[in-house]
Amino acid sequence: MSTVAAETNHPLLTALAEVVGSDNLLLDVDQRKLYSCDVYSEGKLCAAVVRPTSAEQAATAVRIIAEHGYSIAPRGGGMSYTGGYIPINDTTVMVDTGAMNQILEINETDMYVTVQAGVTWAQLYEALKPKGLRLPFFGTFSGIRATVGGGMSNGALFFGTARYGTGADNVLGLEVVLADGSRLRTGQAAVNNGKPFFRTYGPDLTGLFTHDAGTLGLKTEATLRLIQWPPESAYLSFVFKGAVEIAGALSAVARSGAAEEAYVFDPGSTAKNLADADIASDFKTLTKVIRGQSSLGKGLKAGAKLVAAGRGFVDQDLFSLHVVCAGRSEAAVKDDVAIVRRLAEEHNGEEIPNSIPMAARANPFQPLNGVLGADGDRWAALNSKVPHSDAAEIITGFDKIMEKYQAEMDATGVFITRLMIAIDTHAFSFEPVFHWFDSWLPLHKKIPEPSHLKKLKEPAPNAAATEPNCLWTSSRINPAMSSDHSMHKNKDIVD
Question: 20 to 30 A Cα–Cα from 484, which one of 119, 164, 174, 318?
């Protein structure tokens, strides 16, 4: 246990408690263990966790921590696997932004929304929906817990990404607390009497603080673009025989601009996703599918197709492409669907029931049982964003590298699945996910639903699978679907 946590009357703790209140200063060892790990790994035990509820509290807390010579590690929803907020010493104070969870303004005239950094994607989605509004990019798979501030810090993407890009592509401005406790606004709101409706007014300081893993500052507020909720939508799924073939189809769909989402599961990913949830029998999902259509008749028809498809509609040896089209009119969506079908056919795709994208859109922010695999395995992802012209090369190159380590991975129980995502018209995201059986970290035991955990058995420790000299553990880079942000002062900066 670090010295500061052992001394309840330590000047740092006394000062922080005066700012945020004793209830928002966490010193319990089990709580600090939870905050000191992410989905992939655990670091040094942090000295304390502080939970400000306002930008003023956050700025004061950061200043006090820095003045006492302690490292500052901001944390959002805790769903990261990048190591961005993991403490590297026991003199780290974790600043949890989760209590800063207020939606500050929904401006329906100027089409923007301003939120505190701890607001989750799911919370914002539900607040906007009754108003007929939506973010263009509206969240990650982990959006029931992942925060807007964390998404700005680590390249959040998925829902809406094929048409609108990442979370950082849709942010108009930020408020950031710097390491000395000063507060900085970016975007048009930084101008005297300005409104945060436009991103730049000169140098794009907003961009400086996105995708920084929080190393440059603690995000306290974000303003994001709004769009009107598209009243019409359609869903398509196709299977292909090979990774390079389906990558070509994904790139073609991306370039066309016809999709709001376009993503690829490899055979292993498909099997995992179908094992994690019984799409056809999930009454909540079925109900949302029916209600999510533009008319009751369309909803009942879509629901009937979902039930009829069940879970045995994908050949386990094939790659699957899933697409969501959405627009202002039925005719416009039909045109987009026709484009996607033509492109899939040109790349030798075979259309299958659209259960996966339909269910994902109907119930986008599900409980985070997926932090563990279907068999209790742990996982962590790598991510690379490349131009479409390099997609085939990175896929085949990755596979060649992995062939060299196949025997080592087999011996330690490591296996790989792959996810590919279209980012707007111009970028291709390739995300290999490494799975292995190992004892669970505190986060794995906290995040899933208790009823789900009861179905799984915790594996025995497997340190050999994550030895520091293993290729995949030593090559990790910041992935695109994480949700957390980290700032360390001076010599304590973490890459």
Answer: 164
